[in-house]
Hints:
The chain has helices at 32-37, 64-95, 101-129, 143-150, 291-298; strands at residues 3-4, 28-29, 41-44, 46-50, 53-60, 153-160, 173-177, 187-189, 192-194, 204-211, 220-226, 231-237, 242-244, 247-255, 258-263, 269-270, 273-277, 285-289. It is an alpha+beta fold. It has 3 domains: 3-51 and 231-298, conserved putative lor/sdh protein from methanococcus maripaludis s2 fold; 54-62 and 151-226, Efflux pump adaptor protein, beta barrel domain (Elongation Factor Tu (Ef-tu), domain 3), CATH 2.40.30; 64-129, Helix Hairpins (Orthogonal Bundle), CATH 1.10.287. The longest helix is centred in the N-terminal third of the chain and has 32 residues, at 64-95. It is 27% helix and 30% strand. The strands form 3 sheets. Strands 1, 2, 3, 13, 14, 15 and 18 form a 7-stranded mixed beta sheet that branches.
Amino acid sequence: MFALAAGLSAAASPYGAGHSAPEQARSIVLSAEDVTRLGIRTTTVEKIRYTPHVRGYGVVVDLGALVQAEANIATARAAARQSRAELRRQRSLFAHNATSAQAMEAAERQSSTDDAQLLLAERQEVVVFGSQAPWATAHRDQTAIAELSAGRAVLVKATFPLDTLGTMRPAELSATHLGARQNLAAWTSRQLWNAPADPAIPGESFFAIIRGSDLQAGEHVLVTAPTGPSVDGVRIPSQALLLSNERTWCYLETSSGSFRRLQLDLNRPLPNGYFVAAHPSIARSVVVRGTGLLLARELGAVAPRD
């Protein structure tokens, strides 16, 4: 919850409408009596390691389309293999004048038709699941298919907003239940590849194989992907936030009874708080009650007395 405090109005700023005068936060020193009288409460900041990330949405793919695509390919491959063998037999017989030219030509036509059907089945699978799917590569690794079929893994199609991932494919992707609260399970995969674009949802799409989860086919999920290296810092709880002069702040207790205001960046949200990178001004305690009274004291207003 934001504590709203009257600071310098942006409209009345000498820097012009829409611009705020620069604020120089200064330390406020209070006696133990004043801290108690004003109801100032602090909590210890939590040290964490934060990885910048982007969020998107995904869906657990129904494997029916994959099973059908694989069956079509297997059927087409068997037909192509049989017609090629028949073509070789007809050519051998024709070389020994044991069959007619018409029979050999018919075998050639059938072999060409079956090869074309196999190519079509393979390309149809690529259209749906992408050319980099492990089972669609030249080696046609069937390990992933076996895991998906046995229920040991699920296939998630994830979509992220345009221009949030840059030009690089993320190294990993995590998925959790849509609407999951903090501390609920999330599952991470490093086996992912580019997915065909979804015309109904603008963005960048990827497939990922998620193992060991309880995600169900057809379920919509929340997905995240890292966008940079991890950094050390602290979590500032939401109840510590203070809105002043169109900017967001918190008060740190730098020493016993000494408080200093710190501007916050809300672009790095965490469950129940926000991340602040570690730097020399970060203290061990943050004010979670009485921030408005501290701001009034800092700006020179008279604090209310009992």
